[in-house]
């Protein structure tokens, strides 16, 4: 394209590159101590004490300016054993220990979710991790609990157990096998990671309700959320971005998910842990030892980290942009249960209008599934319009208990549909999800049966 100014190369509109910092003799904050770390997009050098005060102030101001925390609140802090989650507990403990009037007044409980079943970790190693995590939490004096990822398959009974010294891991073999079958049923690593993320959220909510907590704290930094933004856009969850990366996720009416570390980068949290000598426990994940191109999340992470080397403001730019984006209807307060996704609880944003991209994708998938035989006139036969004979496979009569892919798919948002498409069958889904499908299908059939009798 032609430019109004031939000498203009557009460089002014590009993101600012990395500039070499000349270290000063003293901290730019207190002007007395020697600087030890560069922060704020590598523009300022802080000493140890000023840096720790800076992180603590950011954490407290993030909670304070939201005006969502009440003295009567009971918060469930998610703890994974990582340095980020330990730093969050340390910041919470410091805020609760303040002697001034600005001390946190809410109560804190801690939850650890054991995910060893999907990783093939032995019961001995899982128990050792559980006891090590118990030792870390015990330092802060918080009441702590643990649950397993397989608890999503349990319909009755308590799912959270007290986490104390020398705790032993309580598991149910049937639930563990169902969880393993579910993840073996999902083909790609991208879909597995997305499914794990949704299951974690469900367990956070169910555990918070069981323990009478109104809010859940997660240790997501701005770096993590910037990666989630690119991943969400790639997976067709752009309309959900506001809930996935903002300070508060209000999807559930009774429990809110809060991200108190979203103003801090991973670098700041890491140095905070180093300066306070906080412990961390290495627990493998689904993407451990996986290549950078093995999943969309890994590719997004590599893309952001490589950009950060030369453009330190990458995370801030992506995160701030994603935080401001949202659909025209960003809340689910006015949405009925029938209009929400059965997996992520977001609004069903799938349009089936003529000539839409979703319709074209569905049609292409239908053609691929039918194959050449699906369009061979010799293999087609005339079937009655309606039939309840099980031997006549016209498809108009379905078993009430049997759920097909279309039955589950039409009750999912676009992002969760990609998970369903990557599964070999839907029978391995948790019963809580399948129950919602059966209930909605029964209500839909009931509406159709009485449609002609309504005025």
SSE layout and pairing:
Blueprint: E1 37-39, E2 44-46, H1 48-66, E3 74-78, H2 83-97, E4 107-114, H3 116-119, H4 123-138, E5 143-148, E6 161-162, H5 173-185, H6 189-210, E7 215-217, H7 222-234, H8 241-245, E8 248-249, E9 256-258, H9 266-275, H10 296-310, H11 314-324, H12 357-370, H13 405-409, H14 414-421, H15 431-450
Helix pairs in contact: 1-9, 2-9, 7-10, 7-11
Distinctive features:
single chain, 455 residues, alpha/beta, Rossmann fold, 2 domains, 7-stranded mixed beta sheet, two-stranded antiparallel ribbon, 9 strands, 42% helix, disordered N terminus, tRNA processing
Write a brief structural summary.
It contains 15 helices and 9 strands.
Spatial ordering of strands, largest sheet: 6-5-4-3-7-9-8
Which structural class best describes the helix and strand composition? alpha/beta
The span between the termini is 60 Å
The CATH superfamily of the largest domain is known as: HUPs
Q: Judging from the principal axes of the Cα atoms, what is the shape?
A: globular
- The count of domains is 2
The profile of the biggest β sheet is:
7 strands, mixed
Protein name: Cytoplasmic tRNA 2-thiolation protein 2
Function: Plays a central role in 2-thiolation of mcm(5)S(2)U at tRNA wobble positions of tRNA(Lys), tRNA(Glu) and tRNA(Gln). May act by forming a heterodimer with NCS6/CTU1 that ligates sulfur from thiocarboxylated URM1 onto the uridine of tRNAs at wobble position.
Main location: cytoplasm
Organism: Frankliniella occidentalis
């Amino acid at each position: 394209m032609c430019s109004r100014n031939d000498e203009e190369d557009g460089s002014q509109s590009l993101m600012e590159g990395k500039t070499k910092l000349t270290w000063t003799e003293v901290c730019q904050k207190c002007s007395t101590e020697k600087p030890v770390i560069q922060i704020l997009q590598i523009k300022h050098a802080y000493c140890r004490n000023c840096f720790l005060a800076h992180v603590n102030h950011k954490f407290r101001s993030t909670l304070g300016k939201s005006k969502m925390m009440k003295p009567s609140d009971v918060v469930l802090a998610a703890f994974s054993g990582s340095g980020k989650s330990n730093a969050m507990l340390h910041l919470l403990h410091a805020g609760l220990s303040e002697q001034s009037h600005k001390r946190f007044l809410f109560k804190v409980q801690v939850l650890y979710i054991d995910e060893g079943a999907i990783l093939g970790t032995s019961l001995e190693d899982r128990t050792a991790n559980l006891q090590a995590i118990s030792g870390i939490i015990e330092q802060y004096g918080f009441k702590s609990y643990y649950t397993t990822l397989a608890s999503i398959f349990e319909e009755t009974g308590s799912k959270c157990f007290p986490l104390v010294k020398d705790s032993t891991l309580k598991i149910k073999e049937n639930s563990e096998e169902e969880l393993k079958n579910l993840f073996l049923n999902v083909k790609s690593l991208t879909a597995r990671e997305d499914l794990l993320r949704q299951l974690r959220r469900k367990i956070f909510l169910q555990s918070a309700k069981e323990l009478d907590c109104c809010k859940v704290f997660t240790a997501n930094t701005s770096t993590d959320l910037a990666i989630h933004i690119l991943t969400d856009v790639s997976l067709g969850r752009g309309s959900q971005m506001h809930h996935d990366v903002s300070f508060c996720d209000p999807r559930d009416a009774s429990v809110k998910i809060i991200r108190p570390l979203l103003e801090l980068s991973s670098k700041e949290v890491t140095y905070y842990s180093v300066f306070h000598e906080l412990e961390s426990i290495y627990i493998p994940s689904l993407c451990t030892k996986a290549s950078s191109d093995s999943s969309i999340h890994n590719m997004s992470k590599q893309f952001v980290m490589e950009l950060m080397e030369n453009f330190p403001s990458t995370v801030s730019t992506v995160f701030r942009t994603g935080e401001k984006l949202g659909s025209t209807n960003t809340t689910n307060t006015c949405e009925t249960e029938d209009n929400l996704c059965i997996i992520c609880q977001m609004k069903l944003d799938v349009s089936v209008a003529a000539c839409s991209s979703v319709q074209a994708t569905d049609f292409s998938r239908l053609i691929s599934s039918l194959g050449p035989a699906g369009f061979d006139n010799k293999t087609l036969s005339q079937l009655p319009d309606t039939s309840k004979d099980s031997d006549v496979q016209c498809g108009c009569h379905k078993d009430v208990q049997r759920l097909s892919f279309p039955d589950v798919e039409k009750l999912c948002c676009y992002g969760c549909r990609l998970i369903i498409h990557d599964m070999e069958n839907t029978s391995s889904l948790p019963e809580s999800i399948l129950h919602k499908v059966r209930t909605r299908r029964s209500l839909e059939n009931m509406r159709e049966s009485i449609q002609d009798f309504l005025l």
